# Entry
Amino acid sequence: MVLWFVLCGIGNLRQQSFACFPQSHILCLKAICASKVCCSKMVTIIQTSRTKSADQKALDFARKLGEKSEEDWRSSWQDAADFGLFRRFMPEKFGGAACTAQAFSDEMMAIGQGCPDNGLTMGINSHVWTVQQPLVRFGSDEQISKYLPALLSGKSIGSFALTEQSAGSDALNLSSTAVKKGQGYELNGAKTLIGMAPVCDVALVFASTAPERGSWGISAFILEAGDEGFTRGEPQSKIGLKTLPMGPMQFEKCFVPEERRLGPEGAGAQIFQATLDWERAFLLAPHVGAMARQLDQCAQYCKEREVFGQPIDNFQSVSNRLADMRVRLETCKLLLSKAAAMFDAGEHLTQFAAMTNLHISEAFLQSSIDAFRNFGGVGYLDNSAIGRDVVDSLGGVIYSGTSDVLRGVISRMESQKHR
# Structure
């Protein structure tokens, strides 16, 4: 339909031709054509009402999801799959809905706004960006057809396994090795602090196939939970994100067939960097939604809570925090939206992804603290969503690269522009 408007020249068509469209859409479309804005902008405007409808459905679904017991997170995971969250962003030829990164990020913001379980919402989003997306982008047709359907349906849970005891911020300083043996590789080593490790059915594992080549000697492999020599460790107790299981992995003489190597030998660093860019750009979308939920709850509470005979939002210290929370929310939305637009346009993401992750993670932490201070003692009680946001937000300044590492990435890339 949009293409028809473009071909016909909307600026020359009569108003009657658009009787089926709202007047606001007609005026916007005419303005776009008059200013020679690209067709992609027209698509965005036409889809606005449909996107808002989809986001409302996601919000309604998330609220129901948030009412479920956190102990039954596996059931909630399946609910998310049945709702189509794992399919939404995937290509149609693989059973997905092929939505844009912009649309999917908006939907995940709605999920984060409606569901207070930050661990579950992050786990869902991470599954798409760090397991499904690299499989689709770098996997063979055989690998995709074998593993993706179960991941999309919720029957299978994936994990992205890179971090080691000596390879955290120095991510590619891997000790795990994969030695060529016959028609496959023998993996030895260990991973730590891996999301979904204790419960995963498949794992994307990185190991060194040529240690002498450094990062150029790293390869990626698909491991299955039943592989001999592959041990999934017990869940590690965390202060936050309780419903996102995390733990170690162990590989001891674990044989992996060659057909389960992801991409060419030595391509592990490339796969990791691409996945890291996606993760940094989009992983925290649910946290942006959580910031909107925080602000709504905070504004309502501060209006109702009275101290010294007046609502506490009459006090400047309180109202300043509300203002700061709003500013952070809107800047986070803008960064996330631009990152999505860059991804959809095929632009290089590394620096902007680092900027997006840095800002959202620190903004969510600060807004969580501001909300906590506005709620006072009520926010300190057990099972308080306000208090839980504080501990959940702490992890954001560590995973996907600490804030210090992200600032280093941004500054180095900025310096390179002026050499």
